[in-house]
Amino acid sequence: MSNSSFPSARDPADPFFLATLHSDSDVGRIDPAHVEVRRSVLEVRRTVSNRVFFQCKYCAHLHEFERAEMSIVDLASVDRIYRDVVWFVMYHVKFCKYIPSYIKEMNADAPWLAADIGAYWAESAMEIGLRDDEERRCVVVDPSVDDTTSTESAEPSFLP
Ligand SMILES: [Zn+2]
User: Fold this and answer.
1) For residue 60, how far is its CA from the centre of ligand 1 (angstroms)?
2) Of 10, 122, 6, 95, which Cα lies nearest the Cα of 54?
3) Domain boundaries, the chain
């Protein structure tokens, strides 16, 4: 799910791509702690080979050896995004000293861990153009909605 060698020198991060999972429809649908994680902690990024990953915004400026573990979430499939982010919250958010304490103090409550929550996370990821790459067992940005390859802009691609 995550390791310190991804993105790699061979497949580095694409500096021109930045998106977010957050949307206004999150509020009331998912746990308030996760709304905040989507809104202000997780950056949706990708490598130059179009392999999508999430990164903690608060420690992204540090060398990987200076970050708490799991600062990067290496995604295997859209359906697993929710589970992967739950792990990210458990193993990174609590330990990253750059994340503001008001976020760390928000804990996801058990009632929100309902079966359809994972489906909501998958659907909202599909809405911003994320797709499974079954061959490489990773998540990619759908080339048909990808408008970043021909632009010089470093602006977020899928923000409203
Ligand atoms: Zn962090």
Assistant:
1) 7
2) 6
3) 24-145
